[in-house]
Amino acid sequence: MKIEEAAEKFVDWIGLKVITSARGDNHYLLEVDPGRRFWLGRLAPEEAVMSLGLGERGERLDPCAIGFRLRPATTPPWQFTVFVSACAWLRGDSKVWNKSSKIVTSIDVVIPATNYQSASFGSSKLESKFLELVGTRALTAEVRIEISLDSTNHAELTVLLVNKSPKSHEVIADTNLYECSLEISGLDVSPYILEALPDSFRYDRHIIGYGINCGLTMTSDGVICSTDAIIADKGRPSYWNVAEPQPDLTFETLSKNPLPSLRRLLSLLTQWGDSTWSKHALEIRARQNGWTEEMHKEADIAARDFSCERERIEFGLNLLESNPDLLKAFKLMNTAIRHASRDRYQAWRPFQIGFLIANIMSITEPGNDSETADIVWFATGGGKTETYLGLLVLAAIFDRLSGKMSGITAWSRFPLRMLSLQQTQRFADAMAGAELVRKEAGIPGDRFSVGFLVGDGAKPNQIPIEPKENQPDPDDDSMPARCQVLIRCPFCQRESIEMVFDRATWQLQHSCTNPDCAWTEGALPFYVVDEEIFRFLPTIIVGTLDKAASISLQASMRGLVGPPRGRCPVAGHGYTYAIRKARPTGCLVPGCLAPSTTLVGSPDRFGPSFRLQDELHLLRDSLGAVDSHYETLFDHLQEEICGRKPKILASSATLTGYEKQIDVLYRRKARVFPVQGPSESEGFWTAESDKLARRFVAIAPRGETLESAADRIVTELQSAIRDLVSDPHKACEEMGVDVSLVPQLISIYGVDVLYGNTLRDLDAAVRSLETQIAVDGALNTTTLTGKTEFSEVRQILERLDKPEELFSDRLHVVAASAMMSHGVDVDRLNIMVVLGMPLTTAEFIQATARVGRRWPGLVFVMHKIARERDASVYRSFQKFVKQGDRFVEAIPITRRSRRVLARTVAGIELARILHIHEPKCAGSLTLVPQIRQFFAKNKITLETELQAAIQALALTGPLDELLRIDLASWFEGFFRNLRTPVVTSASPPISVSQRSQCDLFAM
Ligand SMILES: [Zn+2]
Ligand SMILES: [Zn+2]
Known about the structure:
Blueprint: H1 3-23, E1 29-30, H2 34-37, H3 46-52, H4 55-61, E2 65-70, E3 78-87, E4 89-91, E5 97-99, E6 103-111, E7 118-121, H5 123-134, E8 141-149, E9 155-163, E10 178-185, E11 192-193, E12 206-207, E13 210-212, E14 215-218, E15 224-227, E16 230-238, H6 251-256, H7 259-277, H8 279-289, H9 293-322, H10 324-340, H11 350-358, H12 361-364, H13 366-369, E17 372-376, H14 384-401, E18 410-414, H15 421-440, E19 450-453, H16 479-482, E20 497-502, E21 507-512, E22 526-527, H17 530-536, E23 540-544, E24 566-567, E25 575-576, E26 610-613, H18 621-642, E27 647-651, H19 658-666, E28 669-673, E29 687-699, H20 706-726, H21 728-735, H22 742-749, E30 752-756, H23 759-772, E31 781-784, H24 790-801, E32 813-816, E33 831-835, H25 841-848, E34 857-862, H26 868-875, H27 877-882, H28 898-917, H29 928-937, H30 942-952, H31 961-979, H32 994-998
Parallel strand pairs: 17-27, 17-28, 18-23, 18-26, 19-22, 19-23, 26-27, 29-34, 30-32, 30-33, 31-32, 33-34
Antiparallel strand pairs: 1-5, 2-9, 2-13, 3-6, 3-10, 4-5, 7-8, 8-9, 10-15, 11-12, 14-15, 16-29, 20-21, 24-25
Bound molecules: zinc ion (2 copies).
One zinc ion (ZN) binds next to loops.
């Protein structure tokens, strides 16, 4: 048996265990009140629910009924059979509770063709069944039928099983009914159309019916059954979906002779497209699926998009064939990625190569392609990062071959501050591979390197000679270790990193201590201090978005939009920037007095070729608004300085409204790769397979808080895994898996993630974990939230990645907030309990994608069922999981925010002074008189600066008039301050403090 198969069986086994334990299936005796123990499958007495006076909310929290809403396929009369089963718990003498046997009974329902609204069936039959069962007349239930018309005027039938027992009874201490289920046989139903979703030729919107306080399924012979949990399986994407064998896309082959494989891939894509997207093919589909005219139009547009995609790949392939440098770079890139893959994989997935080839023109013809932003959209875990790493390595090598010898090729940004460590390691691995091949091939230019540029707190901006409080102290021996970012040496892949501060070159270095390492040139080419990044302009910068605002404050950030001022002749000092009092030659090394030398090579080529945005969908609200101003500012600066703007690449978890989002943020057109196939199960690049990726289990705890229900789930999960540890044979027999696979199963299912939407939810859950979970042995828990220290995050990830030998020493539960939704890729995380639906569907998709990355995952989605949103997701849960992206809410974003403009405008002008004006003047422009003199001499006026700012902010449209007025009035003030001589003005005439600039992204 293979581990994949065993893993699926494990998921079945443990999922069932949680549900049966919550319902009480395997319990017969209890020493505690069953009402406090079982939270699924039970029905409270209607009288008790009514007396709460909470209305529908109370009914959902502790329901007295389960049932269905259905649309009969025929007109009345209707005749069908309802099957009911339930049991009770009876208190014995010594406070021990005994479970009764189960009643299972059928009730015939006949509804005549007359007009009535509601009726009850089976109450006397059920009452006598219960009398038989418990020996006293106490418990009873009924099948209640209600008839109404739905929104389309179609008859709708509500069938309910209701607990009609009294709220309390002198003999029967607990009048809840347990393990209740309801089935309907013999009723033909006509499916509903889920109106919440837009009509689309790609998706099926039909659902059989709606469960009421339960889920529903239909058996193959048409019996409709209630379920206590709603299960929705999501299949693993398959990356090759045509009958012909996949072309050889191994790194090995592509590094030697790539063209035949690539030609073959293109010809298969063309064939597939002809059979899938041709006019004829679409007409057949339209007939089969009854497309409306709208759907047909939508399909025609998709067919056109597909054909563009195919043409871009063909064009890229032609470039590769006709440009020897490009072909050489492509081959070397494959060798580099092979190094970075660390033998974990040997080949590209076809879509990765598809994306690469389709985007090759952004490398060779940057001018032609930079007006469009390209978005990669794949199922998470599909290898998205590697895909654009391939493109970036290709671009970096091509840069060197075509004369760019130094400077930044790409700047990759994450929206959040933390947890991009694993991504950073992957970038470092890829660039180390690129550096090894560069040296071997004897390609001239700077070595390839990576910089880590993130917001404050995580690592230092600079190492000062005389540190103030909270600044890194160069004399503190423990300081370097605290700044470690890489986990492994990217060259030899060993955990052999040592952190050193080198006083001579004033560098905080990652060094490899492995004597056999392929890297023999001292410190690794990896920079974590901002100033070192500016000094060495690493080939790729990985970082967070908040750093963008620093462009207005730091003259030495110019390398991100253009050339530095010069180079310091002292070895290890790097590039120089604007002259300041503390750095009289522009060298950023404290105390350096060596005069700066002029740059070699074309200054125009210093501007990066790419800006990457990871997790694009998170750029919304004020973060999105602030960023939109900075995005166009960066474009503006780079265009002014280098005559071109970079290509934007992005990845997003959702495609809802992506065109508008790209337009607002970047003022570019948007394109997505790949074009989705004509249905969920068809696609050339990706389609859903029948291998389980994630099982989602929707749960609405009955009569129990979310926290306690979550505790019970975690208890059950941890007990089950401990059973597997202590008695593998028994558990393996239950599961039907080979006992030799147990150690691996324990490893991949031994950690549970408890996901909370708010820190408050999470704190409560953690407190309760500590006190409420009773399992054999210790329960090792940890938390991953925005409050977790950077170094601790690294340690936790390491522990998860490389677990301790003994199960008892490992981490068992990770309580996590949204902070872990991004960039945490740990194959061992496969079980998650979600405490309440996250606020947005995008977050739900992102968060749950942290589990099941490699193995089948299991996600318990605990619904806060009293909340309307949770209740509504619960009602159509299967569609919600299957067509998740279609449920994603449009992303709220605008650049026309006057409030945001009031905070960014000063930064725009400061950035222009620092990066456009100051480099043109012999001295510095930090004081009012200098600026006044420079502006006068160069005819820079209110009007020229205002127009430049309007361009920089891309506020040129007719709807931007109000913002232009705001800008004009700000610039009037600015120029007024400039004209008015102030005696001791030591800073530019800007009314916004530097501090508030830095806080912009924290809005
Ligand atoms: Zn090494
Ligand atoms: Zn120097």
